[in-house]
Here is the input.
Amino acid sequence: MQRTIFAAYIVAITALAGCATKVAQIEKPEPPYQGPIVRLRYAPGPSNTIRVGEPTALDYVNARREEAGLPLIAVDDKLAEAAADHAHYLDINRVGTHDEIEGRPGFTGVDVITRVRLHTPAYGASEVLAVFGGPRPVDTPIEDIFASPYHRGAILFDWARAGEASIVGSSSVTVVDFADIAPTLSETELVAWPYDGQRGVPTAWVNNEQPDPMGADARYRGQVLGFPLTLSGGPNAHIELRSVELRDHRGKKVACKIAPLTAADAARNTAICTPYEPLRTGTRYTVHALGRVTQLGKVAPFDLAWAFTTLDENRKARSLVAQSDSR
Here is the structure.
């Protein structure tokens, strides 16, 4: 009898100790959010207005924006002149940076806003570029730029106008300069890419982007990873992903890395989750993302779900064979 009482007493103390520990760790809960619900912007998908594959980078940019339900960016010849200046600098110096060093051949300005303002007044500017060691079709570099998630965020940003320049010779250089803001997204809208219902999504991406969405872990540099998922907001949006659940058509979880946030990321309007491995071809994936978006001091949580389907490489290969046979 004494043993039974002693055992029960020990269990009771352990349980009480556990309760005491939990009470000490409880924090005051945040008041429930009662503001407007954050939603994904409706993406209408491909349109016949712009043909994908046109020989300019901005044709590709505007085709992707139209798919995502965003307005087209106006083509600006003065911005194209600024882009051409920097493309020339990159080509003759064989570098691939946004900044220029005074004294080097082709120098026009240390940064993009300085170079843009040499040609046109602008209160804001950004730039995306790609440099390859050999000749490539003009539309290929912009596809690689768009696949890179931070650069994709810049392309889906609320820019009003843009200009481009490409050099194809012993090397291939593409530069696109953007300027001025044309507000489009509301404070409760986010743009997903791949978007809900999208088909033909690439399965993989080579991680050569700076800044690196995989963080400081250098082992992922230059590696073939899964196609990155992005959520982008308006000019003042700061998006924090708490969790991303990516599943294939069988319900199997696919691990992806949320891009780490640093002090330098405070002004970024794009959140990223990159799968560690290439996705499966011709497969439907579902995404469930939890997080919050902060804009001008207002914080709104989000709980978003959508789905997309990757490119069916086997079907594409059969189509190419059929075309070849019909010639």
Observations:
- The two ends are 95 Å apart (CA to CA).
- Residues 293 and 300 are 5 Å apart (CA to CA).
- The helical segments are 2-25, 57-67, 77-93, 112-117, 139-147, 149-155, 313-326.
- The chain has two domains: 37-184, 185-320.
